[in-house]
């Protein structure tokens, strides 16, 4: 028996039970006597039985697998969200396939195809900075495969989404700078194609307006998240005839690089220029000075996205709902401001 791949026929013959009984045990069916279940599982472990997932998929029309497509893993934000999703998936008895698009639309399209080829039962997505066409993601809808967006979402698709209140988070960050005495607050914004960029920019503008500070277009710079351009733009701001006394960055990686560039120019943070980020990246509390930032509930984001997905997987598509969950942020004040 040990000279070939162990099958359910081998287990059934060894235990003198039917093949269907072994199959029910291995697929988690409840209507099996506890003693029989234990005998089957013990023998399966002893003989190192490997489930034939292709056969199970064909029989159940389910892969017991979900997919996650993210734009990058350089910051701690996405790994933390993934960890929470994986925990929920494990609780539901599902495996997870993770793919990173590296901020490339073409790679994201390829990743979506990989998920389809692997017959995932659902997919959780955060889009790239380049994604303007969503046909590759709409295919999931057409095939009746649940899809949930988080963080960077597609507003064209009426599906569940998990986001934070980017507007309020940005407003709180900029108002903090204003109340700290800052009057010329620059904003390093993200690509205008992303909703998070637009909402954080609007929060920035609203805080200025509330405190009667005119918005200066010279202090608002949109960039594509490329690390090389941060130095160009920060140096540009520092060398203005009337430079900023504070910079609000679209995210923590941008803010952290901004602090390093300011210091390289012989200036002090926050004495000369205060800096505030967004997301509460792990390293933000470890740099010098520690970064003031807007914290996002990353674990809650992952759990909520997974729960929304599994809620759909368990229901007929006619019963699917499309909630947009908006979670709260929290301003974490540290020494950079």
TrEMBL record:
InterPro entries linked to this entry: HTH_LacI, Lambda_DNA-bd_dom_sf, Peripla_BP/Lac1_sug-bd_dom, Peripla_BP_I
Entry keyword annotation includes Transcription: yes
GO molecular function: DNA-binding transcription factor activity; transcription cis-regulatory region binding
UniProt cross-references to SUPFAM superfamilies, sorted A to Z: lambda repressor-like DNA-binding domains, Periplasmic binding protein-like I
Domain HTH lacI-type, chain residue ranges per copy: 6-60
Record key words, sorted: DNA-binding, Transcription, Transcription regulation
PANTHER family in UniProt: HTH-TYPE TRANSCRIPTIONAL REGULATOR GALS, LACI-RELATED TRANSCRIPTIONAL REPRESSOR
The protein's name in its UniProt record: LacI family transcriptional regulator
